[in-house]
Amino acid sequence: MSTAAVGHAGIHVPIRQCVGCRTRAAKRSLMRFVRNPDSGWRADPAARLAGRGAYVCSKACKEKLGKNKRYRGLVEVDWPEETLGR
Q1: Minimal CA–CA distance to 71: which of 54, 51, 47, 57?
Q2: Per-residue pLDDT of the chain (86 residues; tens, 9 = 90+)
Q3: Residue 83 in contact with residue 45, Cβ under 8 Å?
Q4: CA 83/CA 45 separation, integer angstroms
Q5: How many other C-beta atoms are found inside a 10 Å radius of the C-beta of residue 7?
Q6: How many CA atoms does the CB half-sphere of 27 hold within 13 Å?
Q7: By the 8 A CB rule, do 32 and 44 touch?
Q8: Are strands 52-56 and 31-36 parallel, antiparallel or unpaired?
Q9: Please, what's the largest Cα pairwise distance for the chain?
Q10: Buried-state track 42-80, b at ≥16 Cβ within 10 A, e below 16
């Protein structure tokens, strides 16, 4: 089973999974958060920062992660204002 989709005209569309609700969506439609060992979690709207990334589809899914030990610090990170449409 492939983890990528093919869009119009055969263009490769990367697919990622939301860590809150486990739904799969196009990478561009999800918000990426990066975990750094020394500074905790931070938002990565451009999806360019190095480090372990977690993708979230909405603020509601981000709030669900408070009970999950792996993503505990992610709840305190603010959702970037320039991406409120995501």
Answers
A1: 54
A2: 455 676 667 889 999 999 999 999 999 999 999 998 887 899 999 999 998 899 999 999 999 998 888 888 899 998 887 654 55
A3: yes
A4: 7
A5: 10
A6: 16
A7: yes
A8: antiparallel
A9: 43
A10: bbbeeeeeeeeebbbbeeebbebbeeeeebeebeeeeee
**The pair of three-digit structure tokens given for residue 81, joined into one six-digit string:** 């204002």
- SS3 for the chain is CCCEEECHHHCEEEEEEECCCCCEEEHHHCEEEEEECCCEEEECCCCCCCCEEEEECCHHHHHHHHHCHHHHHHHHCCCCHHHCCC
Place of tokens 């990478």: 27
Amino acid at 23: T
Amino acid at 39: S
